[in-house]
Amino acid sequence: MKTLHALLAASLTAVAVMAACNDPADSTGASGNIQYGPAQNVGNGKVRTYIVVDPKDRHIPIEVGVAMSETAMEGLPQPAAASMAGMDHSNMDHASMAAAMNMNMYLLDLPSQNPTPYKFVQFDWNPVGHEPAGVYDLPHFDFHFYTVPVSVRNSIVPTDPNYETKAAAFPGADYRAPFYIDAATPAGVTPGAATVPEMGLHWFDVRSPELQGLTGHPEAYQPFTKTFIYGSWDGQFIFDEPMITRAYIMSKKTATDPALRDELIPVPTSPRYSPAGFYPAAYRITYDAQAKEYRVALTQFAMHD
After folding, report:
1. Cα dist from 220 to 6, 106, 181, 217, 259, whole Å
2. Residue range of the domain that includes 259
3. Domains held by the chain: number
4. Which of 208, 265, 203, 207 is nearest to 240 (CA)?
5. Prediction pTM value
6. 51-60, 98-107, 111-120, 234-243: range with lowest mean pLDDT
């Protein structure tokens, strides 16, 4: 059984060869109407979702994100289990995998007035990161914005008799963002083996600086600070995932450059989406000094039929 490190290395190498509570502002600086979801205790503070809608039309989203109180970044759970490295996770349930990976998982409800396709957010704190070693093994947060209900996410388990079939049902080419490849690309690697139970199959941007050591371009390598991942299952993309280190999020508080304090990062988008709805063209990392909140959000929404 290959580890995620081996899967990514093979996938990226193959592609490289083939290629030889203040209202947060939107990207234009205009304020919208904000609504928060229910809070959960994380660390010494609170974490909750929020949605900002167009003040002229509440059916148009400006931003959907996760707000972390300043104190939530302290007192976070510390490592309590052995490393996941080298373990065969193909038959592990998610609780066992989460424990092995030192993952602390929180399912966050979105606000009731939600004009986006997203159903909930899975918020993970990884105190020692995870595979691949030397890439994502830094303390970081995962922000999974799911477009399917929790019940679908919970059904992604190896005990499902159709698990391999569903894992291998990739979204059509029109639904894939450019530069993204799945973790099961190399010949001989089954999508089921590369799928994370109760999560999905992860798709990575081959241009990501932290992955360049795996593509044979070590000169372009930069340590992981932030990245954006897509996730699929049973022929459909089911989550969008900003993944960001704790240190990088906290650096927003002391950043003096406005563009770094309130950072907007464009993401590749696909020609088509399923289900139809508003989807983002960027994500945002910022710190609100008045609300004393760090925020990570999807933004720059556009309607896709």
Report:
1. 20, 34, 19, 6, 23
2. 4-304
3. 1
4. 203
5. 0.86
6. 98-107
